[in-house]
Amino acid sequence: MLPATRSAAQGKKKFLNEPLIKSIYTADPSAHVFNGKIYIYPSHDIDAGIPENDNGDHFAMRDYHILSMDRIGGPVTDHGVALDIKNIPWAGRQLWAPDAAYKNGTYYLYFPVKDKQDVFHIGVATSKNPAGPFKAEPKPIAGSFSIDPAVFTDTNGQSYMYFGGIWGGQLQRWAKGKYEANGSKTDLQQDNSPALSCKVVKLKANMKEFDGKVRDVIILDEHGKPLLGKDHNRRFFEGSWMHKYNGKYYFTYSTGDTHFLAYAIGDNPMGPFKYKGIFMKPVQGWTTHHSIVEFKGKWYIFYHDTELSGKTHLRNVKVTELHHNADGSIQMIETVKE
């Protein structure tokens, strides 16, 4: 078990859900249904003794543990280390939020990690078992950058990757099409310009390469205009996800510095998407990073907070049911009450 680090103030809070596991710190849970079970691909938080800063250097993760469960509310299995940073030939540091996919007998683990020049790219590793272990490709995916890969496979079999995160995720450093090491820390001061956007790209059938051009995920406001940089409560920041419901594509994401989970709906997986609202209020911790999955006729959201530690870099994953209303909107979720 992890050491008890919660403060007395935290003890007065009422949390909506219990952590799925308490033996290690986990975050950024990407959940998928494989072979009738739920597999969760989270970050593995550790305390590396690095002071907190806006670049996120204190998020110094070094490996992945994969979790599984036969049913919601049932026992959770930790399958141990599925991929270690020392076994990724091109990796430097910071093994951040991953995702996974399956096609033609192979499971794919997508991961962001800084290369040896301290630039984030996205890599891919493969396994014949959804719990791993996974073997990394020798190089990152060509044309990839930034963080938070999320892979969605449509009903026609075409797969897409959504990725990107600003601030420590470096997305702002790619704003002009190539990496600028001394670029702005963030675009949040660009109040009257369209906000930096998440990226989307088709994947080739081999699931290891981009197929075509990386595009912006366009999020439009109620007037059909792109969200602006000053719109902190609605703009994309990081942690995107895609799910399909009643023929519509739901692009969900974190607003980052304002800590909401928001959603926008479109008719095409590559957008554009019309902003619809927020569906999860701020969790305890700096922000949350989620996934949404259908299992046995119900929808669930996996997310994280800091109930166990009270520290932003030592998080724990949770799950709760997610409800779509008759009009297609998503019901609000409050994960903590004072």
UniProtKB/TrEMBL annotation:
Keywords: Carbohydrate metabolism, Glycosidase, Hydrolase, Polysaccharide degradation, Xylan degradation. It comes from the Bacteria. The record marks D148 as: Important for catalytic activity, responsible for pKa modulation of the active site Glu and correct orientation of both the proton donor and substrate. The keyword Hydrolase applies. The keyword Transport does not apply. Gene3D superfamilies: Glycosyl hydrolase domain, family 43 (2.115.10.20). GO terms for molecular function: hydrolase activity, hydrolyzing O-glycosyl compounds. GO terms for biological process: xylan catabolic process. Belongs to the glycosyl hydrolase 43 family. PANTHER family: ENDO-1,4-BETA-XYLANASE (PTHR43772), PUTATIVE (AFU_ORTHOLOGUE AFUA_2G04480)-RELATED (PTHR43772:SF2). This is Glycoside hydrolase family 43 protein. It comes from Mucilaginibacter straminoryzae.
